[in-house]
Automatic annotation (TrEMBL), chain A:
UniProt biased composition (Polar residues): 793-802
GO CC term, one of those recorded: nucleus
Feature: compositional bias, Basic and acidic residues: 697-707
UniProt-listed GO biological process terms: mRNA processing
Source organism (scientific name): Coregonus suidteri
Disordered: annotated span: 1-30, 427-455, 665-955
Compositionally biased spans, kind Low complexity: 430-439, 665-677, 719-736, 920-932
GO molecular function: RNA binding
PROSITE patterns, per database record: G_PATCH (PS50174)
Sequence ranges of Basic residues compositional bias: 872-913, 945-955
Protein name: G-patch domain-containing protein
Biased composition (Pro residues): 441-452
InterPro entries in alphabetical order: DUF1604, G_patch_dom
TrEMBL record, chain B:
Top-level taxon of origin: Eukaryota
Similarity field: Belongs to the WD repeat MORG1 family.
GO biological processes: mRNA splicing, via spliceosome
Gene3D superfamilies (UniProt xref): YVTN repeat-like/Quinoprotein amine dehydrogenase
UniProt keyword terms in alphabetical order: Cytoplasm, Repeat, WD repeat
The protein, known as: WD repeat domain-containing protein 83
Entry GO CC: catalytic step 2 spliceosome; cytoplasm
PANTHER family per UniProt: WD REPEAT DOMAIN-CONTAINING PROTEIN 83 (PTHR22842:SF3), WD40 REPEAT PROTEIN (PTHR22842)
Placement of WD repeats on the sequence: 46-87, 88-129, 130-165
Localisation per UniProt entry: Cytoplasm
SMART domains linked to this entry: WD40 (SM00320)
CDD domains found in the cross-reference section: WD40 (cd00200)
Length: 955, 349
């Protein structure tokens, strides 16, 4: 052991040595599994997690996570990267330990497959497959892997590509027989003696090919194992790998007979006695010291010799043919270079100036002959000297036909020929005035075309630009003719619009005159006619009642618009969204804002009149946030909506007048609109009934009266323009209001006076054509209220002053008889006879117009002697007075008031009470009730009075 | 039959009752309707010691009250004993409104310092301080489940703050108002806001609609009725209006009080029988809801009645004037007839 001690130092120890066994030591307990610790390279303990759950290297601090925590891999759609997707390699799942020296897939530098011999690998693979199957332990190729096959070098590969085969020699061929004769006896016994001779013969030197030591020579398979036919040539390139495969015996070579084992690897055989040559000595002279080296030039190369040796002669002969001196390292090119042909520039004339003038296009017809002459002489020729010179594209079919010498087609040459004579004449007569208005371009005496109105001229130029090039000349005419667009343009518009493209996109036409509806309508008509192919679409679609000047203007505009917004361009434009500041859209937005303002005014008026409800309410679409809905436990009302809050919608106009028209139409057909207003009332009224119905009635009146008053006011004001229609609508609104209330009270309370029904129903039957008059009345309402809202009061007052006197007689003559008629017609009317005082009532009421004194609006718009400002003041005063009055009453006696209220509405008591009140109110009111004594009053007037009185009571 | 009756709306029931009563009228004299009790007796006065009390609010069950002081503090009191339970301080300026969550676990308050604070009731700590309003925040409300805080500000926006997530940004900003939002109330799925631009806006989350009612006078306070059929709005034209929620029609108008410049509260009694409103003349006005007549004019003091709050179930009223909060109740020992007399008397006064 001591002698071994110093030799121990020379050994490299690897791993931890086992502790020396001591025999007398008691048997140690085996270390339990949990105490068997493993440390990594940094000395940290590692826990074993199980062979299949990570081994020693599971996760971060023995978890599956990382420092950042465990995140499941997110799904990434590979739909887009299908092509680029790679299958995961095993290495992707390995960590550095696995790739380390002792891992399952150690990384080391190996020759890549490109440089390995493919053929050998195939064989090797096959061999591996077979052995793995046939081996006692399946998959037992480990041993083979341990004996790693070396790959053949690049040179071998090259040689193989060139046709060289394994086992073949390199160099000139040697006759087999000769070789045999020479080498046979030696190789039989020992291969070695043969080798040096071969070397020397061929003069080749070995290159350092392997990782063996210098001069090492392994077993020589040819010499040692084969000893056969190939023994004469040295197989330089047969490597260890071959030998190993041979050893495993699957190769073809393995099937060959084996000679005696001999060679350096195996040392000296027991039979051999000379051992001086066991270790082959090699000299440096056997190796190339210089890359490339000197060329042997001894003609000993075989067919695999470098080409330069084979071709040298040929090249030289070619070079020799060249007479000049060839530079060192250069040879003559094999193929000729292409020479570029260069054309010389043309010879410029002596007086050429490199300046180009664009000649103005001058229409021969519009230019005086003198000027034309001058132009001709100056320029040599005129642009439009001859229209046919414009090019063949500007020829029409007839001209082409002439040029070609063809005969004319049979049949009518023009659409005009198809027309009747009268039509033609009419057309020509139609055309004449337009041509007359256009100061004819015929007389060629005046030099320039008349100064065009700047804007128009430009517009015409624009139109011409839009039109095709063919219309250029005609655009000139358009310039000269102020209003009427030339026939060419019309023609073009016709051809454009009657085409299939225009037909296809019906209804998508751009509306250039949207702001003026009439004009747009006319334009639409024009376009429609164009689409139908009507030739004189333009003339027919114009308004004959307009002046010639206006018509001419419009004609021009229409044609231009038709050309500008021709269907092709509109089809193009439908691909684009319209700009925010498009003129039409801009107009819309303006409208919207104006609407809002109007709305506020209306609402304020409504609030003043305490007409809450439809008038003061706006409902919008509103999109709550998704999360907000979730938090409120409410399903999202607009699940698909991409935005939150209020959409930018164009608010439709919702003014008092809309509402009024709705109610008007509803009265005729008992449409649901007024009912929609109602439904809350019955329930609410029930509440009122708990305390007494007076309150309910009062409340009701509060709601109802202002509306009717408002209406009546509007009527009165409108009556200035149309006294007939003024009687139609006013009362009709009331049935919506009153029958309901009446019906409800019917059971308990006495019938309302007859005149009320008369007033209601007579008037509604009065309107002979309610539907037609409604439209007018709408407008009138608007007028009326506009005048009220704006500079109204004075004007309206004037109106009333002027128009009211004639009104009563008319209505008086009409109404009474109708009243009686209607009384019987009434469907829900009272079966009982009307109370006796109806007649008097009628007489009383049908006096001249009685101004309702109290209500705010009526006071405002009533014919008042005071100016408007005063009027307002007065109104307020009145209001206050009544309020005070009301309050006083209120305090005085509640019960009495209730009673009063209950019966006030419909009963006689109410009537009489009203009478009194009306009288005193009118005395308080703005104007004298001198009119009251008049003979007859229109139904509308009556109603208004009724309402005003009620309103007053209310307040 | 019973179930269907239950299912019908209050108004329908009233309708039925009316019909029944009418039938009875034929044979019997009309029974005297039960006069609802009114909180006309001063039970307690609490001196809050926190400057002027800007708002006073009952909690969800009415056992506690919150007083918002101008000294930046929010205080929680017991109504029955009048004792201070907790002071919540954290606002940077006077507290303008407060609300308690349904489970009494959280409070929210808003302040002139442009913030909304979510408080933990028990610890008194600020759970969350929500910034985002551009001006002082006038009103604040929890939604039904206290998952959202809604706050209306002088900047014209209502912001919906999420109390569940960690986000400090509002879920949604309702900026439809053209002027400051003075009052807001939340029902199950609706949000009622009153704005100084004179409009009452009702956001219906279920329908996804916004209904705007024009009042034409700056709104000071809005309320839902208990049956959720009506809305009550008080405006600076010294009028309280009862509007039908669905159509916007006016069902009642209550006047007589003075509300010209202050943002004062109005409310409905717990049974929806009366309408109450603060007044600048130092009274609380109480009208009969249906009749519209003034039934009670409660003298609170000389100054402006700043705020009031009606008990969610009982006849109990809180009023705030200057630095004091007063608790009013109906005295149970008094007979109905007597009350009626008293009412008449007071009306005459």
């Amino acid at each position: 052991m001591a002698s071994d001690g110093d030799s121990d130092q020379d050994f490299v120890t690897f791993g931890t040595p086992l502790e020396p066994l001591e025999e007398d030591e008691p048997l140690r307990k085996p270390i339990p599994v949990h105490e068997q610790t493993v440390k990594d390279e940094k000395g940290r303990y590692q826990r074993f997690h199980g062979a299949f759950t990570g081994g020693f290297s599971a996760g971060y601090f023995n978890t599956v996570g990382t420092k950042e925590g465990w995140t499941p891999s997110t799904f990434v759609s590979s739909r887009q990267q299908k092509a680029g997707r790679q299958n995961a390699r095993p290495e992707d799942f390995m960590d550095e330990e696995d790739l380390g020296e002792h891992g399952i897939a150690p990384r080391q530098i190996i020759t890549t497959a490109d440089f390995a011999s493919g053929r050998k690998d195939l064989i090797g693979d096959k061999a591996r497959a077979i052995t793995s199957l046939s081996a006692p332990i399946p998959g037992d190729t480990v041993l083979e892997d341990l004996v790693a096959p070396a790959r053949s070098s690049m040179g071998v590969e090259l040689l193989r590509r060139m046709g060289w085969k394994d086992g073949q020699g390199v160099g000139p061929r040697v006759k087999r027989r000769l070789c045999k004769q020479e080498a046979d006896p030696a190789t039989r016994v020992l291969a070695l003696p043969c080798l040096p001779t071969v070397h020397q013969n061929h003069g080749t030197r070995r290159m350092m090919m392997d990782l063996h030591g210098l001069g090492y020579r392994g077993l020589n398979p040819l010499a040692a194992l084969r000893g056969g036919p190939g023994a004469g040539n040295i197989n330089l390139f047969t490597m260890d790998s071959d030998r190993t495969t041979n050893l495993f015996g699957e190769d073809k070579k393995g099937q060959r007979r084996r000679g005696g084992v001999a060679g350096q690897g195996f040392g000296v055989g027991a039979m051999e006695d000379d051992d001086e040559d066991i270790y082959h000595r090699d000299t440096m002279s056997n190796y190339d010291a210089v890359l490339g080296g000197e060329e042997p030039g001894d003609g000993l190369y075989g067919w695999t010799a470098p080409q330069q040796y084979n071709r040298k002669k040929k090249v030289h002969s070619k070079d020799a043919a060249y007479l000049g001196k060839i530079l060192e390292g250069f040879t003559l090119g094999s193929d000729k270079m292409e020479t570029k042909t260069i054309f010389p520039p043309p010879d410029l004339p002596r007086d050429f100036r490199p300046v180009h003038y664009f000649r103005p296009v001058v229409d021969m017809s519009s230019v005086s002959p003198m000027v034309a002459q001058a132009l001709l002489t100056s320029r040599g020729h005129m642009a439009q000297e001859e229209p046919s010179k414009g090019g063949r594209h500007q020829l029409d079919s007839a001209q082409r036909r002439e040029l070609l010498g063809e005969t004319a087609l049979q049949g009518p040459s023009s659409v005009f020929d198809l027309l009747k004579v009268e039509d033609r004449e009419r057309l020509s007569s139609l055309r004449r005035p337009s041509s007359e208005t256009t100061s004819g371009p015929r007389p060629p005496t005046e030099l320039p075309p008349r100064q065009p109105i700047p804007g128009e001229g430009r517009a015409a130029v624009v139109a011409a630009g839009v039109a095709a090039a063919a219309a250029k000349a005609s655009a000139q005419k358009a310039l000269s003719s102020r209003f009427a667009p030339p026939a060419e343009q019309q023609q073009e518009a016709l051809s454009v619009w009657s085409g299939p493209a225009a037909q296809a996109q019906a209804g998508q036409t751009f509306k250039p005159f949207e702001r003026t509806a009439h004009k747009q309508a006319r334009y639409d008509l024009y376009i429609d006619k164009l689409k139908q192919g009507d030739r004189d679409a333009l003339e027919l679609s114009l308004d004959p009642s307009m002046t010639e000047w206006e018509r001419g203007r419009e004609r021009d505009e229409f044609v231009r618009a038709a050309l500008l917004y021709k269907p092709s361009s509109s089809s193009l434009s439908c691909r684009f969204t319209r700009g925010k500041h498009d003129d039409a859209v801009e107009a819309d937005t303006v409208e919207v804002t104006r609407d809002q303002e109007n709305d506020v005014d209306d609402k304020q008026a409504a609030v003043k009149m305490k007409m809450f409800g439809k008038l003061t309410r706006d409902s919008f679409e509103w999109h709550p946030d998704k999360l907000l809905c979730k938090r409120f436990n409410v399903p999202d009302p607009y699940p698909g909506s991409g935005f939150v809050g209020m959409p930018k919608v164009k608010r439709d106009k919702f003014s008092v007048f809309n509402f009024l028209t709705v109610s008007e139409s509803a009265t005729a057909s008992a449409s649901p609109a007024p009912q929609a207003v109602k439904p809350s009332e019955p329930g609410k009224r029930s509440r009122w009934d708990v305390s007494g119905q007076a309150g309910a009635l009062e409340k009701e009146r509060k709601e109802k009266d202002p509306l009717s008053e408002f209406l009546s006011v509007a009527r009165i004001e409108a009556s200035g323009s149309g006294p007939d229609t003024s009687t139609t609508d006013g009362p009709t609104t009331d049935p919506t209001v009153e029958p309901d209330t009446e019906k409800e009270e019917e059971e308990e309370e006495s019938r309302p006076p007859m005149d009320l029904f008369k007033a209601i129903f007579a008037s509604s039957s009065d309107e002979k054509s309610s539907s037609s008059s409604e439209g007018e009345s709408e407008e009138e309402e608007e007028e009326g209220v506009r005048s009220k809202a704006g500079t109204g009061p004075q004007i309206s007052n004037q109106f009333n002053v002027n128009t009211s006197p004639p009104a009563p007689p008319v209505s008086v003559s009409a109404t009474p008889s109708q009243h009686t008629d209607v009384m019987f017609k009434m469907p829900s009317g009272p079966a009982a006879a009307p109370p006796p005082q109806d007649q008097e009532m009628e007489e009383e009421e049908f006096g001249p117009r009685l101004p309702p004194p109290s209500s705010t609006l009526t006071a405002e718009s009533r014919p008042a002697p005071t100016p408007s400002a005063k009027n307002d003041k007065h109104k307020k005063k009145c209001k206050e007075k009544y309020k005070a009055k009301k309050h006083g009453k209120h305090k005085k006696d509640k019960k009495q008031k209730k009673k009063h209220k209950r019966h006030k509405h419909k009963g006689k008591q109410k009537k009489s009470g009203r009478k009194e009140e009306s009288s005193d109110s009118s005395s308080e009111g703005s104007d004298g009730n001198s009119q009251e004594e008049g003979g007859g009053v229109s139904t509308e007037e009556l109603l208004r009075r009724l309402k005003s009185i009620r309103g007053k009571n209310l307040q | 039959m019973f179930f269907t009756q239950n299912a019908t709306r209050i108004t329908d029931r009233n309708e039925e009752a009316r019909r029944f009563r009418k039938k009875c009228e034929m044979s019997f004299p009309q029974p005297k309707p039960e006069v609802p009790q009114l909180p006309q007796h001063l039970l307690r006065t609490i001196d809050c010691q926190q400057g002027a009390v800007r708002a006073v609010r009952f909690n969800a069950d009415g056992n506690y009250l919150l007083s918002c002081g101008s000294d930046k503090s929010l205080k929680l009191w017991s109504v029955s004993r009048g004792t201070l339970l907790k002071t919540y301080s954290g606002h940077g300026y006077e507290v303008l409104d407060a609300d308690g969550s349904y489970d009494n676990s959280q409070l929210c308050s808003c302040s002139s310092d442009k913030t909304v604070i979510l408080w933990d009731v028990a610890t008194g700590q600020v759970t969350r301080k929500l910034r985002g309003h551009a001006g002082k925040v006038n009103c604040v409300q929890f939604n039904e489940e206290a998952t959202v805080i809604l706050s209306g500000s002088i900047d014209g926006t209502v912001r919906c703050w999420d109390t569940r997530s960690r986000k400090f940004d509002p879920i949604q900003i309702l900026d439809e108002a053209q002027d400051g939002v003075s009052s807001l109330k939340v029902s199950e799925h609706e949000l009622l806001t009153g704005s100084v631009d004179g409009r009452v806006r009702r956001y219906d989350l279920r329908m996804g609609q916004l209904h705007v009612d024009f009042i034409n006078s700056p709104i000071t306070c809005v309320c839902f009725s208990a049956d959720a059929q009506c809305t009550l709005t008080s405006s600076l034209d010294s009028t309280v209006r009862l509007l039908d929620k669905s159509t916007g029609e006016m069902l009642g108008e209550y006047t007589g009080h003075k509300m010209k410049g202050y943002k004062l509260d109005c409310c409905l009694s717990s049974k929806d029988t009366h309408v109450l409103s603060c007044s600048e003349d130092g009274h609380v006005y109480c009208w009969d809801l249906v009749e519209g007549s003034l039934t009670l004019k409660l003298p609170v003091g000389k100054a402006v009645v700043q705020s009031l709050s009606f008990h969610p179930s009982e006849t109990r009223l809180l009023t705030a004037m200057e630095g004091r909060v007063q608790v009013w109740g109906a005295e149970p020992e008094e007979a109905e007839e007597d009350e009626d007399v008293v009412v008449v008397k007071q009306e005459k006064v």
